[in-house]
Amino acid sequence: MLFKSVALNPTVTNVLRAGENGKMTDEIRDIGIFAATGILVAVLIIAGVVAGGIRFPSLRLPSMVSDKGTLIIKITDAPVRDLKHLNITIDSFEVHRNDTDEWLSIPIEGDQVSFDLLHLRDKNITKDAAISAVDPGNYTMIRMHIVEGLQFTNATLDNGDYFEVRVPSEKIKIPVHFEIKAEETTTIILDITADSAHIASNPDHNLRPVVKPIVTPPKP
């Protein structure tokens, strides 16, 4: 059996296409109406919340801001007579927190720091001894430990004599009041004055330093 293709009348074709286009137009119009209505409802809800003073619980995202402050301890030296060099090595700092009555260790990069006090004096400079994050609070004292031994702590007189300097006590206590605030930096300069006459004349060459702390209050 043979089938013949039947060509639609151009008028009929145009009518069908117009119908399809009209249907798509109606759908697009409906979508637009629904979208506009949704936006209007959202605006009205927000306006009502603001007008009514309703507050939603705030969402707390994980904080990337540290709750600690920063403590910087620097060393400098006042003028000393009769000494050409005074080399000192410190291997620990501790600070006393007043409200909890506890001692907190302040780490030193490389576990110890060495310097010639008289070099600091001659250059009128300070040396960073320790930088650390510390819990906020009020602190009332610093303890530091000076390492004994000729290679660590020694002195050279103007006449060239070279000898080990001994530390009478295990740790040197420095009364000082300072505050640590979160996200701020407190700087303390320890101005160390050595008793050069005692170092030179005493057979044990004991170090009897006078330490004057200079505190820069917390600042961002």
Question: How would you characterize the overall build of this protein?
Answer:
The protein folds into 2 domains: 10-59; 69-219. The strands form 2 sheets. Strands 2, 3, 4, 6, 7, 8 and 9 form a 7-stranded antiparallel sheet that branches. A 4-stranded mixed sheet has the order 5-1-10-11. It has 220 residues and is an alpha+beta fold. 25% of the residues lie in helices and 39% in strands. The protein has helices at 10-52, 117-123, 196-201; strands at 69-77, 83-97, 102-106, 113-116, 127-134, 137-146, 154-157, 162-164, 172-180, 185-193, 210-219. The protein contains 3 helices and 11 strands. The radius of gyration is 39 Å and the shape is elongated.
Structure, briefly:
This protein has 220 residues and is α+β, with helices and mostly antiparallel strands. The chain contains three helices and eleven strands; from the N terminus they run H-E-E-E-E-H-E-E-E-E-E-E-H-E.
Keywords for this structure?
220 residues, alpha+beta, 2 domains, 7-stranded antiparallel beta sheet, 4-stranded mixed beta sheet, 3 helices, 39% strand, elongated, disordered N terminus
Order of helices and strands: HEEEEHEEEEEEHE
Q: Supply Rg.
A: 39 Å
Average pLDDT metric: 76
How far apart are the first and last residues' alpha carbons, in Å?
A: 96 Å
Structure annotation, total helices: 3
- Per DSSP E runs of 2 or more residues, the count of β-strands stands at 11
Strand content: 35-45%
Q: Biggest sheet, in brief?
A: 7 strands, antiparallel
Structural class: alpha+beta
| Overall 3D form | elongated
